[in-house]
Amino acid sequence: MTELDLADRTITEVAAALQARETSSRELTEACLARIERDAERLNTFLAVDDDAARRAADAADAALGAGDERPLLGIPYALKDIFVTRALDDDGHDLPGGLPTTAGSFILEGYRSPYASAAQERLEAAGAILLGKTNCDEFAMGSSNENSAYGAVHNPWDETTVPGGSSGGSAAAVAAGQAYFALGTDTGGSIRQPASLTGTVGMKPTYGRVSRYGMVAFASSLDQCGPLARSVRDVALVLQAIAGHDPRDSTSVDTPVPDYAAALTGDVAGLRLGVPREFFVTGMEPGVETAVRAGVETLENLGAEIVDVSLPSTDRGLATYYIIAPAEASANLARYDGVKYGLSADADALWDNYDHTRGSGFGAEVKRRIMLGTYALSAGYYDAYYVKAQQVRTLIKDEFDAVLATVDAILAPTSPTVAFKIGAKVDDPLAMYLNDACTLPVNIAGLPGISVPCGLSEGLPVGLQVIGRAFDEPTVLRVADAYERAAGFAELRPPTASRA
Amino acid sequence: MASISRDDVLHVALLARLHLDDDEVDRMQAQLSHILDAIETLRDVDTSQVSPTASVIQLENVMRDDEPGPPMTREAVLANAPLRDDPFLRVPTVLEEGR
User: Which has more pLDDT, B1 or B96?
Assistant: First the structure.
């Protein structure tokens, strides 16, 4: 055991302690709940917590542990981004005890109680993990700072005056702040990796199709993917193992075997060829970020990996491509919020007015902007010029990744061009905000797996190194990130507010 | 320079069934024009020989066996409805009188 507080340790450490009966799930749960309560106002990470339900589940996990149950996530407390629906109603339409609401960070879903569970909730429940609550996020996962939540901004535990990144900002901040041992996020253009980078945590977007999207509130269906945030690469591998796999209820989930991810963590990268795409060191990248990322590349070279300079020439087209495809898909997905079936209703006298006013008052500024942008791109006369064009450039971007990944085993890049920025700094300039995802969104466009792992500090704030791999080659991505993490010495980076015992 | 007019904004808002108040329309006009300027850079890319990608995975016509399973109960489905008239959802007037 390290010197870290119980709440700040890794899953790997506390799971071993659970199996050895040196701690209990109840003790871990109390440690997280204490942090959640202590920092509720300071960080605003959670939108809903049910501590009684968490305590009951922890006691049940302790009983199972006592009976010799060895499931790796048994008794481990976690949080779900409030984009995953959690079952809150029984078959009679009555509230289930311990059922949590689902808001997607939006007023339009305020008070919504789902009649069914997301695949993520089901799988983690089956793994014996303890659900603590739902984390704050940008509205409908649209944002890079968590300032677009209808329920207030999340504060970065490293510096409360800065953002935690987004859109899975609550999940990332909760993991960084010792409020949960892991959390699930969703990543459409960087929404797991970028907040992981800004909070000094590890966050992975698996290959599109690797994890079921069933019960994930849809943003852009050809880009959305669910993935874990945790405090080590090994922890992320453990969680991915529990959530990966085919689900017939998500027709885009791919029926291909799930490898043993922990087995991939050999610590050995000797002989691996790792490409560094020059286009990812973009204009506007902070010098401190570039220094930390280049040092990370050097660490891997010192471990015996062969570093190769590669080119992905269409990288600078990624932003424009993404900001056509994602809003177009969003404008269609968000058509369902009509004030009829669930959620907010404006109570207008006529149906068409009710649609207009429910949506006009229920959606926030960024969501409206994207609905407008997407509707425009799909409208008569513009469809070919914008939407089809973007899908063609998508092909180019994907083909370039495939060609490079045919010559190297994985790609190394920055996760975010900057460290955490001040709350309010970019809210009036949507385009400046979109640039935060310049290094992550090409990976979604190509559907590939990517992970962000801490690679040091710049100006006292965390920087992330991104590892990108071939489709369904999460093992190599995890192997590279884990070997780096072991060698780099940043594995025990915690925010200054985390106390040391 | 992509210029999007006030009327364009109002037309798209109508298509999207999204009420915008006057200053939102102004702000949207300025911001969408700015964003569209950045997006229009795609015009320079030669895609004459490139087919579009709608999805990165090569799945086609995913079918399941046509076996009935238990549906969600009516009570659970209706529980979140803002307006209900059991066993139905209720909506405001669709056809106004005299039309």
Answer: B96
- Tens digits of residue pLDDT in A130-171: 999 999 999 999 999 999 999 999 999 999 999 999 999 999
Q: Residues A395, B49: contact at Cβ < 8 Å? A: no
How far is B98 from chain A, CA to nearest CA, in Å?
Answer: 14
Q: Among A372, A401, A402, A448, which would you mutate to test the B interface (most chain B Cβ atoms within 10 Å of its Cβ)?
A: A372
A2: pLDDT strictly greater than 60: no
Report the mean per-residue pLDDT for chain A. Answer: 96
Distance CA A209, CA A205 (A): 11
d(CA B55, CA A223): 8
**Residue to test with chain B: of A319, A376, A396, A428, most B Cβ within 10 A:** A376
Q: Do B56 and A90 touch (CB under 8 A)?
A: no
CB A170 within 8 A of CB A137: yes
* Residue A3 neighbours by CB distance under 10 Å: 9
B31–A369: do the CB atoms touch at under 8 Å? yes
Rounded-to-integer distance, Cα B26 and Cα B96, Å: 31
**A37: Cβ–Cβ under 8 A, 6 or more apart, which residues?**
none
What string of DSSP letters covers A155-199? PBTTBTTB---SSSHHHHHHHHTTS-SEEEEEESSSTTHHHHHHH
Chain B positions in Cβ-Cβ contact with residue A344 (cut-off 8 Å): 82
What's the rounded Cα separation, in Å, for the pair A359 and A361? 5
Give A1's pLDDT tier (boundaries 50, 70, 90): very low
Q: What pTM value is reported for the model?
A: 0.97
Task: Categorize the per-residue pLDDT at A499 as very low, low, confident or very high, splitting at 50, 70 and 90.
Answer: low
Q: Specify whether the CB–CB gap between B84 and A341 falls below 8 A.
A: no
DSSP state of A220: -
Interface subset of A 246-305, CB within 8 angstroms of B: 248, 251-252, 254
Gap between the Cα atoms of A492 and A499, Å rounded: 12
Whole-number Cα distances in Å, B72 to A189, A293, A338, A378, B69: 33, 50, 21, 33, 10
What does each C-alpha distance from A32 to A55, A181, A368, A445, B65 come to in angstroms?
11, 8, 36, 36, 44
Residue A81: phi and psi, rounded to 5, are -55, 140
